Amino acid sequence: REVLEELADYIKSLVAQPDDEGQRGAQLLHIEEALEDIEPPLNRFVHLWHGFVAYGIVPLFALANSGVDVSGMGLSDLLKPLPLGIIAGLFVGKQVGIFLFTWAAVKAGVSPLPAGASLAQLHGVAVVAGIGFTVALFVGGLAFSGQPALLAEAKLGILTGSLLSAVVGYVLLRYVARPTVASTPPP
Fold it and tell me: How far is CA 145 from CA 138, 148, 150, 157, 162, in A?
């Protein structure tokens, strides 16, 4: 309560002052820091560790549980027909299928693009769809049960296709398909 009262007084003093864009960043930072003081410690803890868990621990867990033994594998193993076909399916097939069918639905008037979304962003999302490897690992396990050599090749293709989709999708969405900033009309 104490923090909220101090923050209310601070905001009242800001409203009373003339608008100064040079000070706006510092003012917003002060407000943000005050709000952090009332955030529960568990929320701060979760926010602190989220990046490490989401981008480090979970992918390592998935890789460890995929059961792929990469020791002794070389580029020649990656260039075999089975891994190449799986990589093409995850990386090329998913992005082409998702992008083309969504684009066709938009052009046919069945569904609009989300407000402010571009075709480049749609393409980035289609590429990212190739990341999903858990079902692919499950299907590979069913398809090649009793054939450990083919299952290992399939897993290698699945992980490579997923990794390729993740990296290319990230680059597309981060650097190519930047969101457009909606312009607000002047008051």
Answer: 10, 7, 9, 16, 21
Q: CB–CB of 86/77 below 8 Å? A: no
pLDDT of residue 181: 53
Long-range contacts of 37-43 (CB under 8 A, 24+ apart): 37/3, 38/3, 38/4
CA distance 65 to 48: 26
Residues 160 and 77 sit within 8 Å (Cβ to Cβ): no
What gap in Å lies between CA 113 and CA 101, rounded to an integer?
12
pLDDT tens for each residue of 63-102: 777 777 767 777 888 899 999 999 999 999 999 999 999 9
**What's the rounded Cα separation, in Å, for the pair 158 and 156?**
5
Check if the beta carbon of residue 181 is closer than 8 Å to that of residue 187: no
Largest alpha-carbon pair distance within the chain? 76
Residue 149, C-beta contacts closer than 8 angstroms, at least 6 positions apart: none
Tell me which amino acid residue 55 is.
Y
Q: Provide the 10 A C-beta neighbour count for residue 38.
A: 11
DSSP letters, 53-117, are IIIIIHHHHHHHHHT---TT--HHHHTSHHHHHHHIIIIIIHHHHHHHHHHHHHHTTSSPPPTT-
**Within 10 Å of residue 152's Cβ, how many Cβ atoms?**
20
Show the tokens assigned to 113: 């693009």
